Structure formats: C-alpha cells, structure tokens
Amino acid sequence: MTWAVFAQNIVNGISLGSLYALVAIGYTMVYGILRLINFAHSDVFMLGAYMLFYIDFMFRLPWWLTFVLAAVLTGVLGITIERVAYRPLRQAPRISSLISAIGISFFIQNLGLVVFGGRPKPFPVPQFFSQSYMVGSVYMANISWVVPVFSGLLMLGLTMLVYRTKVGLAMRAISHDMDTSSLMSVNVDGIIAITFGVGSALAAAGGIMWALKYPQINPLMGTVPGIKAFIAAVLGGIGSIPGAMIGGMLLGMLEIMLVALMPTLSGFRDAFAYLVLIVILLARPTGLLGREFREKV
C-alpha cells in the first residue's frame, strides 16, 4: 500500500467514523440516564433525512436553515416518542421498555414504507458538498472534511451542554440516581425529554450527513448505520460521551482499513463490525471508557 492510498483510507475512515460517532452519542445519552437502549434511534436517523428532503422540496429555503429546521423538528419528534412510548413504562420492568423500543422502531419503519414509499429518493446535495479537489495525491471531496469538522463541533457543543450548564448537571445527577434527583427538585421528566430531544436532533444531523455522503434515502436507510453506531457506543463504553466519539472513530477506521488491506473480505465488512461487538462484550463488557453499573434491587 502506497502512502497516497494509506492517506486516502485515513481520510475515508475519519469521515465514516465521525458519522458513527455522531449517531452513537444519541444511544449513549439515553442509556446514560435511563439505562435504556433506544432502538428507535436508527429510525429517527432516517426521519431526519426525510424531514430535510420534504422541507427543501416544499419551501426551497436556504440550505442551512432547512438543516436547522429538520434537526429541530426531529428533536420534537424524539420528545414525542419518549412521551408516548417510554415515559408510561418508566416504573415498569426494563424488559417492557425494551420491547416498547423495538415496537416503535418497527412501527416507524413500516409507517415510513407506507408514507414515503419503498423506492429510494435522490437526496438534494448542495454544490459545495459535491465539489472535490486533490491534496497532493489524495482525493478530497468537501463532504469528506465537512462531516468530521461538523461532527466535532456538535460533539464539542454537546460536551459543553453536559458539563457546563445546569441542564447538563441535572442530566448527570439523574444518571447517578433518578429518585434522589427528583427529591432535590430536579424536573426528571423535563430533563429526560430534553435528552431525547437533543439525542434525536443529533440523529437527524447524522442522517442528513449520511445522505449527503451517500445521496439517496429510503425508509430502511437507518438500520445498518444505527446498528454500527450502537456497536461504536458499546465499543467506546455505552453511557460515556467521549467513549462514543472514540468508538465511532475506531469502528470507522477499522472498517475502512479492513477493506483496504484485505479487499477480498470487503463483502464481510458488516460481519466484521458484529465480530467487534462480540469481542468487546467478551473481553471488556463496559467498553473502553465505560463504567460498571449495579442494578438496584
């Protein structure tokens, strides 16, 4: 492998890994507070892309404004999902919430097939994102550097929210002890709703970035990226925001380098990601930066 080819794969790995990390943060935020895997997160990822598609089709607003509106509306949708599917089951056994999450996921997928149709739709890509140029011997499309830079800015903003604001302090308090937090005048329902809203907006951003990189959308587009992002969250340590970032980057780099070094195994790329999940669960169940949680009895 030449230096140019190696550098090209590094660029591709960072771009893909930042997408995984962006979606993985949504999984890890919800799990950090509720100890719940929100399996509908991958379908919210899909809805974010469709939100932008239809807003752009109907209103023809400036692209940045369309992006913001799509993310905000998807965040509101995430809050609605929490209110309808998870909040009534908060005191129920964990398995009930898990079943509800899986049910919501299938419901959104099938509703999407009915409403949007099963045929893939071309995603509107502004000219700036489709432009490309050469940096030395490395091919660089604008989307290749925009995705990691944008993802990094969102992750920085989220880190500031969690560790530098009162809302973030309440999130961390609830993650440690929800009952005690409620006794100390923390609005538990409100903070959890905000968590779902922020996580869903991040999923929408991930879905839009994914559609810009691979410009075609369909109602099942979130399934594989969602599973990969979940693997990234487990790899980094689910419940840890820095862990989700690191896990996403590692998984993206491992996938790209596997195809680059062993092209004959490119058809097993998804299987490799599942193998990573199995290995990390066997070797280090808490992930790279995760911490062990004890169930209350």
Task: Please sum up the structure shown.
The chain is mainly α. The chain is 73% helix and 4% strand.
Task: Write the topology of this structure.
Blueprint: H1 3-34, H2 41-59, H3 63-86, H4 94-116, E1 121-122, H5 127-130, E2 132-135, E3 138-141, H6 142-164, H7 166-176, H8 178-183, H9 188-213, E4 216-217, H10 223-236, H11 241-261, H12 269-283
Antiparallel strand pairs: 1-4, 2-3
Rough shape?
Answer: globular
Unreliable sequence segments: none
| Integer count of domains | 1
Strand and helix order: HHHHEHEEHHHHEHHH
Query: Sheet with the most strands?
Result: 2 strands, antiparallel
Account of the protein in words:
The protein is 73% helix and 4% strand. It is mostly helical. The protein has one domain. Strands 1-4 form a two-stranded antiparallel sheet. Helix 2 packs parallel to helix 4, helix 7 crosses helix 9 and helix 11 (241-261) packs across helix 12 (269-283). It is globular, with a radius of gyration of 19 Å.
Keywords:
globular, single chain, mainly alpha, 297 residues, two-stranded antiparallel ribbon
